[in-house]
Amino acid sequence: MQFIPVVNESPLPFFYSLLHSLCYAMLVLGDGARRLHVSAALSAKASVAMSRFEAGSAVNYEKLLNNISIVRKRLNRPLTLSEKIVYGHLDDPVGQEIARGRTYLRLRPDRVAMQDATAQMAMLQFISSGLPRVAVPSTIHCDHLIEAQIGGAQDLQRAKEVNQEVYNFLATAAAKYGVGFWKPGSGIIHQIILENYAYPGVMLIGTDSHTPNGGGLGAICIGVGGADAVDVMAGIPWELKCPNVIGVKLTGSLSGWTSPKDVILKVAGILTVKGGTGAIVEYHGPGVDSISCTDFELHFSMATICNMGAEIGATTSVFPYNHRMKTYLEKTGRKEIAELADEYKECLVPDSGCHYDQLIELNLSELKPHINGPFTPDLAHPVSEVGATAQKNGWPLDIKVGLIGSCTNSSYEDMGRAASLAKQALDRGLKCKAQFTVTPGSEQIRATIERDGYAKILRDVGGVVLANACGPCIGQWDRRDVKKGEKNTIVTSFNRNFTARNDANPATHAFVTSPEIVTALAIAGTLNFNPETDYLTDSKGEKFKLVAPTGDELPSRDFDPGEDTYQHPPTEGGSVRVDVNPQSNRLQLLEPFLKWDGKDLEDLQVLIKVKGKCTTDHISAAGPWLKFRGHLDNISNNLLIGAVNIDNDAVNKIKNQLTGEYGGVPDVARFYKANGVQWVVVGDENYGEGSSREHAALEPRHLGGRAIIVKSFARIHETNLKKQGLLPLTFSDPRDYDKIRPDDKISIVGLKSFTPGKPLAAVLKHSDGSSESIVLNHTFNETQIEWFQAGSALNRMKQLQK
């Protein structure tokens, strides 16, 4: 509802008009009128653009306010902040059934963001939809295809040459369909979003699991697969299971060596990698504002915490709007949005007395520096104890490489705090004992730290400044200091440390921590060093302790934007040509999957029974495979090559049940497909945790898979499987996992009466002639069942267009 006062020459009639608008609001909205300020009515006279690149798309706090008022009245209770923003984007706030953890919400996100590795498949799917232009503001960010080898400039130039075909495809597809395009060298998608597109109350979906980074600016930003992005770009309501809400109440204040990164490292240790599944993590309490009193840059600190919420399986994470967010919006050229957010602030903070499904309380004053790992981001250790723990477990103490930056910790202050430690070492004649790399999060950060001298200090202490890209964080690292299989330790300020993720070496013990702890440990060269208590020896043989790091919140001379790397889409892109060479090994147009034949799935061969953790890195590896993200058949050659086969504890070695010979997982899958044999994968807990990459769902579908049966799924992967026409199913009794043998054939029955909430049955046919039945649960709703029946969500979209 919009209240626009009539403008008159005399101020008195204008006042009466404004008063009339407010009185009308009180009659219509009832209790909700308490939250409608006079200034909100005044602001209706002018719109505020969502970003400086999209003058025609306005921030719509009016709609958010109206939807919140409708839902609050319906539910008759106080709302959490995440509920306000999520329910504020309902397609039908009047009729939508709302039940946390149970119902599916139909939502209207404000915008879409895609990184280049996932954008290829997303845009190929959008092209297949036949639609002429995206329905909401959307952007593509080139950050994943730049491999770290030598240094920023050289690596960027090499990436432009090697990936020219892909970059050209993305640039022309963006221009044709109305999508903004951030060229290689711009920076990491999440940092660009924070600097340009995130703002309090916006709902954004992104084709990367760390999209929740934007929650540091009070936004609801959710990682999804490319097919979900296509729905939103097509103007179709997007479905999300109504999330539970985990509250994290912060009290006290940070000090010394303790950083905001330690908040999420501690939370990850509490909740584990699946503890946040199906929930939004909402930070609140007096500690939120107290962070700003410790010289920490609050908006980036909160972004760091929200970014790593992906590591606990959370749908997203969010902080309430406050004055630090306002300052950051102003510093990044969005003063008008900040002023509007002030007017609608009660939409951007939780209601008093709201209910959380789970509540965690953290006293920041008692929090100690943490370091998590190896091989999983939820194995938390105080820095003071990790050395002893490493010795006990036989983890290498010597640190080979320290790596700071990435989307998780690459703010101006992160770099400043690391530089303050490097300067102390240089002043005492020391350099890093370990190799040291620095990844700026964006061109703006790179240009500003170069101007202000931070980059020089970090180079002088032994660092190499890499390109503004994801780099080693996602495995884009041409590492040559150790051989594959050589046991070694690295410490990073990244977000993930799964086996072989950073350097493709399964023997690398990767630990994640704050950039200041990484820097201190790189200087010391060992895990057995606690900077709070331990001494270093300088070039003169004298002992000294590092002083706790410091850094400016924001640059005193404002940010240096650096090189302009944005390509604005033309007003009319119909004449733009998008070419995909049929002979290309990088890009491939998509063929629709076959629709369901109306029968039960009989005698599905078990392709592999996976033992233990199976992330999307295990299912569809990144690193050197990123080059094939736009070519479904080629990328399918990495299907499950990192998963452990329970039959022999081997990786990428399974028995071909038709020939009796052993082969790689994708090779056997292709053999089955060529011989008309459909198959199933059996997995353990939290199957598909990690990245949002939908290739982990597209590949099994492409190679003949029909179902994935596990103990539990990670949220994004389960949805991606549904989107591609697969059946993600869970054991009603987790112990039934043990009943399945690697050479079984499985029939899934009951599909003719496939309905929401009704389990399916599976008949396990053993090679000895015996059989047994088990019950399989699912989370399909009616719309998702239509995806399965049509063969995929994209097929169903095309059916509805006819």
UniProtKB/TrEMBL annotation:
Alphabetic keyword roster: 4Fe-4S, Iron, Iron-sulfur, Lyase, Metal-binding, Mitochondrion, Transit peptide, Tricarboxylic acid cycle
Region (Disordered): 550-579
Span of domain Aconitase/3-isopropylmalate dehydratase large subunit alpha/beta/alpha: 83-525
Record-linked Pfam families: Aconitase, Aconitase_C
GO molecular function: 4 iron, 4 sulfur cluster binding; aconitate hydratase activity; metal ion binding
EC annotation from Swiss-Prot or TrEMBL: 4.2.1.3
Cofactor(s) needed: [4Fe-4S] cluster
Cofactor remark from the record: Binds 1 [4Fe-4S] cluster per subunit.
UniProt cross-references to InterPro entries, sorted A to Z: Acnase/IPM_dHydase_lsu_aba_1/3, Acoase/IPM_deHydtase_lsu_aba, Aconitase/3IPM_dehydase_swvl, Aconitase/IPM_isomerase, Aconitase_4Fe-4S_BS, Aconitase_4Fe-4S_dom, Aconitase_dom2, Aconitase_mito-like
A single Gene Ontology CC term: mitochondrion
Stretches assigned to the Aconitase A/isopropylmalate dehydratase small subunit swivel domain: 605-733
Gene3D superfamilies in the record: Aconitase, Domain 2 (3.40.1060.10), Aconitase, domain 3 (3.30.499.10), Aconitase, domain 4 (3.20.19.10)
Main location: mitochondrion
GO biological process: tricarboxylic acid cycle
Top-rank lineage group of the source organism: Eukaryota
Catalytic activity: citrate = D-threo-isocitrate
Pathway membership: Carbohydrate metabolism; tricarboxylic acid cycle; isocitrate from oxaloacetate: step 2/2
Cellular location(s): Mitochondrion
NCBIfam families: aconitase_mito (TIGR01340), PRK07229.1 (NF005558)
Sequence similarity: Belongs to the aconitase/IPM isomerase family.
UniProt function note: Catalyzes the isomerization of citrate to isocitrate via cis-aconitate.
Protein name stated in the entry: Aconitate hydratase, mitochondrial
Annotated source species: Pygocentrus nattereri (Red-bellied piranha)
Gene: ACO2
